C-alpha cells in the first residue's frame, strides 16, 4: 500500500464519517442558522466538498466537470482570493441547493478525487489532499456542535442521539502538578500533519508554576454560581461584565434551572447535570472569572504544552490565558490557503486540548484552537493554574 | 344542505388549498425566514391550524386531545391574550417540528373540526369557523408571497411553478374617470363575512376628483427610473429618501438589470419584464414618488371605494394615501380575536383591491389591507388620481 | 406705518425674543444634544439666522457680505436643495462656532435684513420675511422644550427660571360637548399667515360625536398608572406596547416617583406634581392607551377643528387620531421652501391646539403640528372624545 | 525638603499643568464628546479631581467638606466599587456642572489635599498621592488627544495652539539593529513609581531578531497608500479588513486629500503633511497591514523592551504585536484601585514608548500602554521588526 493509497483511504473514511454525523438529522435540521457563529449542516457538507473541488479538482484535474457553477458562490466561506460568496449571516436563508443535491455534489466530488488520485500522484497533490482531509475533520467537530446548538435552542429540545457520551466522569483526586522554571520548546516537531500556526518550533522561558491535573467539574461550577460568582464585578474583565449583563448570562450555555435543580441540554436531550463531569459550554470570560474567584488563573498555552504530558486531556477544549498570536518566524502559506489561519490572529484566545467532539486523528498536543472570548457553543472547559 | 354543511365544505376546501400551494416545495423551502416580515411556510401551515385548535377545539370540543402541548408556544403569532410565543424573528431558526409532523397536526385538527361540527352546531361556532377560514385565506396569500421571497432571494433563483400567472397584460387605453363632489357611504354593508375594520358604515364628503382606469405599467415605471426618479429627492418623503439611500434601492423588488435589459424574478423563474403588465413589488414610498413625478397623487381609500365600480381591479394591491385608522364607531371584538386588527392601526397605510395572490372569495371592495410604508414583498401596485 | 414697517418691527421683536429665551442659560447649555430630536440652543440660534441669510439676503440683497461661508454647512437643517449639511446626529459634537460668534452672526443678519427692507420693498420680500418670522417662532417653541430636555436630563436637575408657568390649573367641571352630524369646513380661511399644510379649505362629513371640555389632568393620569395602565397590553397598539417595554416606560417624561410621591422636573426645577394641571409630556401611544382605558378615543383633527370654538385650549398640544396627510388639493411651494412641510407627511400624527411654549402669535385653530408617535418632549396632552 | 514636600510640589505642578493644557479652549470646547472614546475636557478636569477626593480626602481627611455630593455620580469613570455613575456615552450630554464650577471644585480639592499633607504624613498617603498624580498625568495625555479630536472633527477645523510640535522630523538613516537570542529580564525594577501592570519582573526567552532604529515616516506611509495598501485584503486581518470597509478608511485619522496633496489636521490647524515626520494616528490594523506589505512584522513588547536602549523613542506610541496580558505573578491591588488595570487585560494590544503628548515624567521604558485594535486618536505609530 503506497502513501497515496492510505491517504485516499483516509480521505474516503473522512468523507463517510461526515455523513454519518448527519445520519440522525431530519432534512429540516440541515437548513437553519440560529446565530451567525453556527452554520447549517447542509453548508458544512457543501463547503468541505467545495474545498476539494476548488483547490484540487479545478486546478489539477484536466477535464473535470464542475458539478454546478453556482456552488462556488454558495459554499465559499471566507476565501477572498477565490471570489464572491454568500455572506455568512445569510447561510440560514438558503433553502436551495437541496440536501439531496448537496449529497449528490459530495458523491460527485468524492468520486472525482478518487479518480484523480488513481491516475496521478505527486507530493503537491498529497499535501493538498491531506490539508483537505484535516479541513473536513475540523468541520466534523463544528458540525456536531452546530447541530447541538440548532437542536438545543429549539423549544422542543429534541434529542440527536443517545449514543454520544458528552459528559465523562472524572474520578481522580485533584492535585497540583509543579513545573520547574526553565527553557521549554514549543511547537510542532515531527513529519506528521499540522497547521501552519503550530510551526516555528521555538524556545520560551517559563517561571515555575503549578497546574491542576483535573478540569473544573460541574459541581465546582455550581458552587461558583451559588456563591454569586455572576454578580461580583471584581471577578470579571470589564468587557466580560458588560457581556454577562447585556446578555443576561448566569450559567453555562444549555443549562436550565428547573424547580431548584440544574439540568442541561445534551445530544441525548434534556438531562440532569452530571456533577462529576467537567463543566463545559463556558466562555473565556466565565473561565477567567471562575479562576479569579478561586484566586488562581488560567495557564498560558506555553505552560499547557510544557505540562501536557502530565495531564489527562481531550474531553474539553481548555481556555488558556494566551492571545492567539503568531509564533516567532511564522509564515503564512501562499495563495488562498494562506488565508487559513493568519488572518484570524487578533482578538481571540487560544484553546488547547481537544474535546469529545474532536476527531481523534485531529487531536495533538501542539494543536492551537482559537475563539473569541464570548463564544460558548464548543465543548469548552477550564483547568486552573497558579 | 345546511349553512353549517356548506361552511364545513368551505373549510375543507380551504384547508386543502393551503396544502396545494405548498405542493411544489422542497422540504427545505418550508423552513427558512430570510427577513422578519416573511414567515417559513411550515409556520403558516402550523399557525392556521393552531388558530382552529386554540379558538374552536380547545374551548368548544369536550374531550378533544391536544395534538402537542408545545405547539401553542411555537405557532402563536401575536396574541398576547393566549400566552407566550416564539419571537417572530426566531421563526426561521426552528428546524422542528418537522414538516411531516406539521402535516400530521393539520390532519388531526381538520378531522377534529369536522367531527365537532358533525355533532354540534351553533351560530357562535359557525362565526368562529368562518373567521378561521378567512384567517387561513389571508395566510394563503402570505404563503405565496413568502415563498416567492424565499426562492427569489436564493442565489440559484429556482422556479416555483410555471402555471401561476403573475403579470397579466392591461389592454385598455388610459382614461381619467371623474367623480362628483358629494357625500359617499363607506364600509361593509351586507350579511356576508367581513373583518371588524370594515364595519362602521359611515358617510364621507369627497371633493371632485379624477382617478385612472388603469394601474401604472412596468413600461411607465421604467420611464420613471430612466428619468432619474430614484435620484430626485424632491419627489420623495424625507423618510422615503433615507430608506432608498440606506438600502440602495433603485428599482422594484425582484428586478435585475442585466446587460442593459430589465428582468424580474417570477414564480416561474427569472424572466424579461412584461412591459404592458402593471408594475408590482413597490413600496408606498415608491408609489408616492412616482405620483409626484407625474404631478398626480394616490387616491384616498374613500375615493377608491367610491370609484371602484368603474375600475378594473384585483391584480395588485393598490397603495392609497390613507393611513390605516379606525372608522367612526369602530369597536374591537372581545378577547383574543380583538387583537386581530385594531392594535395595528398606527403608522401603516391602507391598500385596496386585492392581487393575483388573493383567494377570490377573499376579495371584496370594502376590504382594507394594510402594511408599513417600506414593504414590497406583496403584489403591490399603483393607480394615479388627481 | 406701512405693512413693511410693521413686519420689520415684528421681525425685530421676534429676533429679540429668541435671545431672551436663552438669557438664563450658561454657555455650556447652548452646546449639548442629548437625543437626536433635541437640538443644541446654539444651533437654533444659528439656524433661524441662516434661514434669513439663505432665502432673503443671499438672493435679494446685492452686495451682501456673507458672515461666514462655512455656516451654511453648519446651520442648514434638512434642505436638500441648498446643499450639504452637518448630519442631525452630529449637532451636539460641535463646540464651534462659539456662542459668541453665533450671536455676532445673528446681529449681522438682523441688521442686514433691516437695511434691506429700509431700501427695498416688495410683496415677495414681505412674504419671505413673514415665513422667516414664523419659522423662527416655531423654533422658539422648540428652543424652550429642547432646553427643558437638556436640563431635565442632567443628573443635577438645574432650574431654568422660576417665572415660567407650565402647569396651569383647570378649574372647570368636566362636560361632554355634543357636536351634530353634518358637513363642516376645514382649513385656513383668511388673509393672515398660515403654512401650506393648512391650505386647501375643504368640506368633511362628520358623524355626531362628543368631545370633552377639559384636558385629562395629572390626577386622572395617576389613576391610570395606578390601575396598571402600562401593564395591560390590550390597551396599547402593538407598536406602542413594544415601545414602552423596550424603553421601560411607565410614566410621562420628567416624572420621578420618590418615596411614594410623584414629582416632575419643571423649568423651575424638580417639583411635586400639580394634580389639577393637565397631564403633559406623553406620547401618542400613551394618549391612545389612556383613551382605550376610559373606553373613549381621541378626536380626529377634523372633529377638533369643528369643535374648537367650544373648547378652552392652548396649554397643551393635543394628540389627535389623525395621521398627518395632505388636505385635498394640497400643493407644495416651489424650490427649497417646498421642503417645509410636505415631505414629512407620512407616519406622523397631527396635534392641534398649541402649548404654554407656543408663541401667542403662532397659535391658531387651523394650525397643524405633527410628530412621530413616540415623541414626548413637547408639551403634549390629551383630550377625550367619544 | 522632605519626600512629602517634594511630592506635594509635584502634585501642585501637575494640577496646574492640567489647567494650562485647557487654557486655549473656549468654554464650548469643554463640553462635547464626539465619540465614546473621547471625553469632554470638563470631564477630565472633574474626574482627576474626584480621584483625589474619593481616595484621599473622603477616607483620610477628618472633617473634610465634600464639594458637591452629586459630583461623585458625575465624575466616576468605571470604578464599580465606588457606586453608580453617568454612563460613558452620556458624558457629552451634560451641560452642568458648568466649567466655572468644575474649576472651583479643582481649587477646593487641591487646597484640601495641600492642607491634609501639611498636617498629616504617612507612607500610605504618599502612595495614594503618587498614584493620583500619575493618574492625572495619564489624563493630561488624553486631554490633549481628546481636544485634538474635538477640534479636528469640527467642520471649521479650528487651531488649538501654534506652539505645540507634533511632527518632529527624523533625520537618521534607517538601520536594522540585531538583537541576540537569549534570556532577557522584563518589567519594572526600581523604587520609582510604576503601575501594577509593569510589576512581576520576569525572564523571557527571545530568538534573534532585528528591529528598526526608525519609526515609519509619513513618506513611507504615503507610498503604502499609493501602492493600494488599503485595497489588498491579504495584508489585513479579517477583522481589520471588515473595519476599514465598514468605516470607509483609506488613510490615517486627520488626513485629507485635497487637490492631489495630502494635508493633516494638527493642533495648529490644517497643514500639509510633513513627509519626514513619523506617521501617526493609525490603528493596530493599519500598522499590521503596513508591516505585512513590507514583509516585516511588529515587535513584541518583550523585544521592544529588550532593544529599547538602542532606539530613539518617545514621539509615538508604538503598536506592538503583543496582546495586553498580565505578567507572571501579576497581582491586582485591593479595593477600588485594583480596578485600575487588570480588568482591561483582554482584547487589547500593548503600545510601548510614549508620545509627544505624554508628560515627560510619565515616560519610562517599562510602561505598558494599551488600546483596542481600531483606535487612532492617540499619537500612535509604527516601527518594523523582522
TrEMBL record, chains A, B, C, D:
Lineage: superkingdom: Bacteria
SUPFAM superfamilies, A to Z: C-type lectin-like
Domain Sulfatase-modifying factor enzyme-like positions: 173-307
Record key words, sorted: Iron, Oxidoreductase
Any Gene Ontology biological process: ergothioneine biosynthetic process
Domain DinB-like, first and last residues per copy: 13-140
InterPro entries: CTDL_fold (IPR016187), DinB-like (IPR024775), EgtB (IPR017806), Sulfatase_Mod_Factor_Kinase (IPR051043), SUMF_dom (IPR005532), SUMF_sf (IPR042095)
Pfam families: DinB_2, FGE-sulfatase
Pathway in which the depicted protein is active: Amino-acid biosynthesis; ergothioneine biosynthesis
Protein's UniProt name: Ergothioneine biosynthesis protein EgtB
Amino acid at each position: 500500500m503506497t502513501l497515496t493509497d492510505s491517504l485516499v483511504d483516509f480521505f474516503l473514511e473522512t468523507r463517510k464519517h461526515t455523513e454519518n454525523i448527519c445520519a440522525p438529522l431530519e432534512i429540516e435540521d440541515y437548513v437553519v442558522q440560529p446565530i451567525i457563529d453556527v452554520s447549517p449542516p447542509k453548508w458544512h457538507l457543501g463547503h468541505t466538498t467545495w474545498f476539494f473541488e476548488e483547490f484540487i479538482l479545478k486546478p489539477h484535474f484536466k477535464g473535470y466537470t464542475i458539478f454546478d457553477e453556482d456552488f462556488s458562490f454558495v459554499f465559499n466561506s471566507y476565501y477572498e482570493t477565490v471570489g464572491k460568496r454568500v455572506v455568512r449571516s445569510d447561510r440560514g436563508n438558503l433553502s436551495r441547493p437541496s440536501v439531496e443535491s448537496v449529497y449528490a455534489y459530495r458523491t460527485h466530488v468524492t468520486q472525482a478525487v478518487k479518480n484523480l488520485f488513481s491516475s496521478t500522484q505527486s507530493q503537491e497533490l498529497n499535501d493538498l489532499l491531506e490539508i483537505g482531509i484535516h479541513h473536513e475533520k475540523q468541520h466534523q467537530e463544528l458540525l456536531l456542535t452546530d447541530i447541538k446548538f440548532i437542536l438545543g435552542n429549539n423549544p422542543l429540545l429534541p434529542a440527536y442521539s443517545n449514543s454520544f457520551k458528552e459528559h465523562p466522569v472524572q474520578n481522580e483526586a485533584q492535585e497540583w502538578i509543579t513545573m520547574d522554571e526553565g527553557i521549554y520548546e514549543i511547537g510542532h516537531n515531527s513529519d506528521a500533519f499540522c497547521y501552519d500556526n503550530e510551526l516555528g518550533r521555538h524556545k520560551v522561558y517559563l517561571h515555575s508554576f503549578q497546574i491542576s491535573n483535573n478540569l473544573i467539574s460541574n459541581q465546582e461550577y455550581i458552587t461558583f454560581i451559588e456563591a454569586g460568582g455572576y454578580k461580583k464585578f471584581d471577578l470579571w474583565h470589564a468587557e466580560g461584565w458588560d457581556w454577562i449583563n447585556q446578555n443576561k448570562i448566569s450559567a453555562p450555555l444549555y443549562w436550565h434551572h428547573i424547580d431548584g435543580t440544574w439540568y442541561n441540554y445534551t445530544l441525548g436531550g434534556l438531562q440532569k447535570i452530571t456533577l462529576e463531569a467537567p463543566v463545559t459550554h463556558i466562555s473565556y470570560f466565565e473561565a477567567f472569572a471562575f479562576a479569579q474567584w478561586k484566586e488562581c488563573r488560567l495557564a498560558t498555552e506555553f505552560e499547557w504544552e510544557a505540562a501536557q504530558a502530565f495531564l489527562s486531556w481531550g474531553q474539553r477544549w481548555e481556555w488558556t490565558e494566551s492571545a492567539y498570536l503568531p509564533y516567532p518566524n511564522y509564515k503564512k502559506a501562499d495563495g488562498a490557503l494562506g488565508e487559513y489561519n493568519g488572518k484570524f490572529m487578533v482578538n481571540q484566545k487560544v484553546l488547547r486540548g481537544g474535546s469529545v467532539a474532536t476527531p481523534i486523528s485531529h487531536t495533538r498536543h501542539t494543536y492551537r484552537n482559537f475563539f473569541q472570548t464570548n463564544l460558548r457553543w464548543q465543548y469548552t472547559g477550564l483547568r486552573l493554574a497558579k
